[in-house]
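Data deposition worksheet. Section B asks for the primary sequence of the deposited chain exactly as it was used as input, without tags or linkers unless they were present during the calculation. Section C holds the resulting structure in token form. Section D is free text for depositor observations; keep each observation to a single sentence. Incomplete worksheets are returned to the depositor.
Section A, Depositor: J.P.
Section B:
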Amino acid sequence: MKQPQYQAEIEQPNPERRGLKKGLYLVPSFFTAANILMGFYTVMLSLRAFQQIGAHDLKRAAVYLDYGAMAIGLAVLFDMLDGRIARMTRTTTEIGVQLDSIADVVTFGLAPAVLAYVWGFGAALAEGTDLYNFALFIAFMYLMCGAFRLARFNVQASRPRILAEGTIKVDKKSFVGLPIPVAGGLVAAIVHFAPMPLVAYGADRAELYSILLIVLMGFLSILMVSTLRFSSFKTVGTKSRSMRTIIAALGIMLLIILFSRYVLLTIAVGYILYGLLSRMAGIFRRRPDLATANAHAKET
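Section C:
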């Protein structure tokens, strides 16, 4: 006997649930798109600031540079959210992973390099000199090292079993090499801390500060392609006692709102120093272990 049409419609799966599930895949992509938008916005503001420096309106240039630095700071937040939301909703896709890497190259690779050029050595150093050309080289290497670091991470994450022997495997608790959002965030935090272009400090001091900026970007480039491990903090808040983590996160957010110039710079520098000091502590811990093992081997 044929069932009534209305009963067949009741037994069909709810199409709204399928639509909702498909809509969840767009949420991480929305934050990734916002990440790219912040990088684009920073580049546009940096170009506008360069025009103002040429017109000798340094105060207006500082405003543009400050907004560009804050846009990179917002991009760091968007970059953290898109990954966490994708894992929480189980909507991680291959195209989303690749799009996230492209976004990071634009926002934390190209945008900080342009921002550092406009704020620092672009106007402070004489064009065509050896130091100016070397600064351009370091800015390009910063971008290339960041892109290489992201490519290495994608390969290790997607094909960990067929990598060459001896390659460091991906660990959820740590990153191999300095994450590019931290490197770009540090450059942005420095500009946000003192947004006035370096050319405003006089020729001699501007050249000295530009040299320090070049050294910093070169150091960040080396850290990104290194094999040093930096904590990912992905396991923070996953334990049952996560209320403390929520309270700490709210406290940090409030501090950032009230004292962003100091807190953001402290967080970026502290994260890098924590990774470096952890590495040094690990080396010193291994030496006594090796000495004990060698002594035990001689006794036996």
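Section D:
The longest helix spans residues 260-299.
The chain has one domain: 14-236.
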